[in-house]
Amino acid sequence: MDEEHGGGPGGESELSERARAVLALERQSWPGPGAKERAVRERLGITPTRYYQLLNALLDDPRALAHDPVTVNRLRRVREARRARR
Length: 86
Fold this sequence. Notes:
The chain is mainly alpha-helical. Helix content is about 65%, strand content about 0%.
């Protein structure tokens, strides 16, 4: 596992601070278009594209599920529904 998800010395059983921040952003509701993307850039200092790449990887990480099962399971359902529509 890479360091962005908590891998590395002593961090293999915990999510990284960035991974926890990604999940925290997903728990929030957003008032309008662009608000979430703006928050991603301002709070995390990454592009929205990178954010969604990290988020997608987190959905398959058992540590993310243990940290925030409600959010991860909701997002997994959304992802599966999108895949089923394709």
